[in-house]
Structures are given as structure tokens and as C-alpha cells.
# Entry
Amino acid sequence: MGYLDTLNPRQKEAVMATDGPLLILAGAGSGKTRVLVHRIAYLIDKEGVNPWNILAITFTNKAAEEMRTRVDTLIGQGADSIWVSTFHSMCVRILRRHIDILGYDNNFTIYDTDDSKTVMKELFKRLSIDNKYIKERAVLSAISSAKDELISCEEYKKNCGSDYRGEVIGNLYAEYEEALHKANALDFDDLIVKTVELFRRAPQVLENYQERFRYIMVDEYQDTNTAQFELVSLLASKYRNLCVVGDDDQSIYKFRGANISNILDFEKVYPEAKVVKLEQNYRSTQNILDAANAVIANNSERKDKSLWTDKGQGSRIHFRQVDTAYEEADAVTDDIAGAVRKGQTRYGDCAVLYRTNAQSRLLEEAFVREGIPYNIVGGVNFYSRREIKDILAYLKTIENASDDLAVKRIINVPKRSIGQTTVNKVSDYALSQGLSFFAALCEADRIPGLGKTASKLTAFVNMIRVFRSEEDMFGIRQLIESVISTTGYVKELEESDEEDAEDRIENINELISKAEAYDEEESEGTLTDFLAEVSLVADIDSVEDDADKVLLMTLHGAKGLEFSRVYIAGAEEGVFPGMASIYDEDPTAIEEERRLAYVGITRAKDELTILSAKMRMIRGETQYNAVSRFVKEIPEELLDNRPAGNRQLTYDGQRLDGYEEGSYERNAFKSSPYGGYADRSDAFRARPKATIRPKITPEDTKPYISKAVASAGSAVKAGGNGITHPGYDVGDRVLHTKYGEGTVKNISLEPRDYKVTVEFDAVGQKIMYAAFAKLKKL
DNA sequence: CGTACTAGTCTTTTT
DNA sequence: GACTAGTACG
# Structure
């Protein structure tokens, strides 16, 4: 049993505890994938378990892929028949076989978030719901949370009692469900929910899978939601050989329904569970670990554990504060370029992490400017680009005639002179006849009021029919090519003068290569499978490991990865931790951000650089943010705190007031944690809420920064919370530059600013933010 | 029916 | 600031 010798005693213990429930609390970098891989190998090799009986659930396809390869190399062969997959792809596989029990067609389509939004929009229109009152997004996220908790729309309605808003959402939930059912479509959450429903409704199906999956392993268990928990519980309830691996300190998906008590209460649910803690870290230097431990220690709700390493102290953590986000980007690229030049690292060993995708733009520009090879993970998913969604909509139309959404998307793409009015007429007809949109199109000549457009519809239907006949004989690549040439999609792009037409064509070619690769790999693969696979890819899945490129991604995206050099950009209050978490009345919101910081820090093996900018443009507003509390939570002796060049902050050659050489760097660390700033009142040490600037108007562009700084100062003085109270009150008469005179009806304090409701004599009631509106009291 | 402009919204984070 | 949906016009 040679391969067990490479494990430490704890790891070995986890590997060999094969029977019964097992909770592995695996700190960052403690070799948990290693343990899982060895455990699978051990089950097969030593315990004689049939690979067929093993199920391993990972978070991403990439992780699944990696696990399978590593098992393969360890045990030779036999790993093929292990189910290693994500929750979502596993559910798709199960549902494809059995969903007819629930009254769906087995070739159901999967709706992504965009699709769901489109459906919801149509519902809003149809039920004439005012999206000022409630937003589609809000409804969808309520539905999604309900599904994460396995709450059906009936239960939802019951729970909300007489709450009007809840009632509206409940009704929309029901309508939404019906719409999806009609389209024979499932959204992401449904994949889990319907599988649970299937298992509950069809015990013989459940038993079938219980027999099959006698040994179940779940990775990243801290990120499972209630529905996923139920799914796993059902599967494991017969043999109880359930092994879950996770780290409560790395739970960062609460917004997606992750239920941290799944891991915290595992021992309550499975009293006979064995618990193994992995605390030896094989990844990072002691300094990095100390920093991570110090930060996470500020959280209250956690299982106590502490990482250690025998790797040695390592460098101190580099903290750099720069003036602007531009300089931040330059600092990153300069540092990477320098280190590579000196032979200290290669591009592929570096990663830049940030809180929000929006931050990637400036960084990307710097990488382009410096000619440093890079890869951005995340942002707009490849498969959600317009041109890709268009082509996929053709495939979906070919494949699932009830997918109204797909049909409507492409009926006039490329332009066929089939406009909104026609689409509406067809929709009405479909609704009245109880037909799908496509079925209605097939009867175009019977639809009243269409006139000669009917022939265009018929032409469209015939085209789709031709594609359908090709489906059986063609591979997916050929089918896509046929779609492109018949519709003239690419031709239209080539002729268009749109700036990004070339990129689009490039993307379509990329899609064709992916289809080709699919055709080759999955000789049995059907169009249905291709579409399902495509809707379940995460961005991280397509990252090539061996490319020598710097990876840029969000902190969320970085979970599970490691790099020799890590840069965390935007370590500022209001950015990371983000505004929303700072103002959340629930204090655990900040704890989630802190876990994210913990994840970020522990990605680094050797060198960790944290950057923060004094000034940054967010959503068109210039913000001046204090250094992130997470930086301050790192013991000072672990930081090099090298000031980022003691320049004065200038703009257009003008010196800005309030910045003295080096003053900030010193003060930032002396001030007490969490915004209790020293007595000096320059804008930088104001709390985030004091630092939001009014939108810059064209008239005062030139010296805008110094103006902004000056007014920031006065804002701090004016209100203790940093938000200037407008110089008027409810009942006052005010003058607005555009709307004229009016009466103030209401003033309320929002997180960012005072919200003022004014009844204007000329234009009626308007709601506006005080800082923007610049109302004058009369 | 299609285009060109305007107004409003938006950002956390993702399978 | 960037994007998108909505609207007015040709």
C-alpha cells in the first residue's frame, strides 16, 4: 500500500475511515483533494469496492476532471465508471432518465439566469405588474432562495400569509413554474429541486440510485444548500457511507443559498459520524498562514482550528497603498514583470484577485499595455455572449420545439422582417389555442391579421424543419455550420460595421471548435447532451493550467486554486468588504466577506501582495475609501507596509489638498480598527459612507477631483455619519434646475445619501438623491 | 418594421 | 461609466 505512506496520520485516518458518515474538516491547503483521491483509490484497491458504486460530487467540472485524472494515475484504470461530477450535471443525468415521472419531457432544456429573466419579464408584462413596485431581479432571487430551501410555490404562498408583496411573489412563482413547465425547461435550481422531488415521489428510483451509490463523497460541503443537503441525505440514507469534506471558514456562497449549518451540524444529523481535522497546511508560508489565521479569528461562528506549516516563515506580506486604481493596476503589472524578469517567477504562477468583476477592466488594460500574457476568468460567461446564445437558440429550437424562449430569440435574427407586432400576434394565438409558440408558427396561415408576413413565418418553420432532418445525420459541428450558412448569421456580421463584429465571429469559430471537440470526445453525444453540458460550464472549467499566463479572477473564482504569487487588489472599505455587506443589518454579512478574505490570503504559496487605492471610480462615481479592515486585522509585524511611493496625490498637475507625504500610510495603521479614525479630518480617513461623491457634471470637469475632495471634507464635518443633510425639510418649497418649483414630501436616509421625494408643480412627484439633485430651498 | 436617441439602472459574489 | 430597455421617428 505504497501510496498511503505519503499521507500524514490525519490524512491517513480520513482515507481509511471508509464506512459510515465521515466529516473531514479540511483547512485551506491541507491536501483535501489528495485525501479524496486516495480515499477513492483505497476503496477500490483495498476494500474491493466496485468503482461503479462510488459517487464523488465536486463544485466545478474542472475539479471533477482533476479528481478523475488523479484517481486514474493512482490506480491505473477503472476510474472511468466512477461518477465524478457536479451537483448540477449529476442531476441532469438522473433527470434525463426519469423526469417523465414528474410530467416533463426527457429532453428538457436548461434555462440560464438570462433566460429566467426573460421569462419573468414576459410575466410582468402579461400580468401588468409595475416593475417600479417590484423588480424582476428581486422576484427571481426570492424564487431562487425558496427553491434552495425546497419551498414550493404553494408553501411559499402559505408562508407569506397576508403580506401583499409576498403574495405577489408567490403568484409570480406559480406562474413562472408553469411557464417553465410549458417550455419543458428547468432552471439551475430546478435541477436539484426536481431531482429531490423525483426521489421523494418515486421510491423505487431512489432505491435504484441508493444501491448504485453506496459510497458518496461531497467536496466543498460548506457551500451546499438545503436542497443539495436533502439530495445527498436521500442518496446516503440507505448505506450511510457519506463522506463530506469542507471548511466552514471558506463558506462564501451564502448569497446562493449555501447553508453553513450543513457542515456545522453534520455531527448532529449523523451522530455516529467520525470527524477528522486536517490542519497541516502544505501550501503557504508561515507568514501567510499567520495572516490568514489572524483575520479569520475575528469571526464568531466557526469551528475552532488553526493552520500550521513546516514550510518556514517566508517573506512578509506586501502591502501597497497607491493613489488611484490606475496606479494599482500598474503596480501589479510592474511587480509581475519585474519578478519574471529577475527569474523569481513565471506568469503562470501569478494570480490577481479582486472582489468584483468590474475591477478587472483596469487591470486588463494594464496587462495589455505591458504585454503581459493573462487570462481573465469570469465576467461574461462565454456561453452567455449574444452571438453564442443566438446560435445555441437555433440548436435549442431544433431540439426542443416547446422552448418558446429560444424560438422567439432567433425568429428575427438575422433580420427577416418579423417584428414585435407579429411576434405578439403569434403569441396571442398560441396562448388562445394552448399551443407552443413554434406550433403556432406552423399554423401561420390560420393566425388572423398577419397578412403577407405569414409567408415569412412559414419560411422560418421550413428552415427549422430542414435543420431537424439534418440533426440525425450531422455532427454538432456540421449542424452549427449549416445554421450559420443557411441563416447568413456570420455573413451579416462580416458586413456589419459594428466595432466588435470581428470578436463575435471569433467567438462563433470558438464555438464551432468546441462542438468539434465534443463530437470527437463523445461519439455517442446527442444535441441534448451538448446543450446541457454547455449550459453547465463554469468559466473556471475552461482555464488551461499549463498556459504561462497570469490569471485574473474574482476571489470567489479562486476558491480551490493556489498560486505562488497572489495579488489581492482593491483592499478598501466599500470595495472589499463591499458596501452591501458593511450596511447589512445582519452582522454575519461581514463575516462572509472575511471568509472571502481568508480564501484570498490562503491562495498564496510564497508571496502575497495586498493593494489598496485611495481613489477609485465606481459606477461613474469617484470614491475615496479607507484601507480595508481586513488589512488592519493582519498583525503589523507580518506586513512590510512599504509605502507606495510617497507622492502627493495630484490631478492634472494640481496638488490636491489633504494629502501630505506619507501621512496616510502612517495614520491608516494607527487608527483603531473599523473606522474609528484619528482626529484629523481629511477625506481619506472618512468612513465609506462619507466618501461617495456626487456625479461629476460636465461643467466642472477640470478641477473635479479637488472639488470633490473639498466637499468630502465638509460632508464629514456636517453630519456625523458623513452624509450631508440637505438644507431643507419636509414641507419646504424647493427649486430644481430642470423640474422647477416643488414641495418636499419626504426625506429618508438611505445608506448612500438622503432620498428626497418632491412634488413638482409642473411635472409631478419625483424621487431623487439629495447630492445629485442640488435642490435649492426657496 | 427598423433605427437612433434617451432615460434609467446598476454590481457583489455563480452552478 | 456602461449597458439596456424603452420610445420617438423615418
Notes: Residues 501-521 of chain A form the longest helix (21 residues). Residues 358, 617-621 of chain A lie near DNA strand C (CB under 10 Å from a C1'). The longest strand of chain A covers residues 604-618. Residues 642-723 of chain A have pLDDT under 50 and may be disordered.
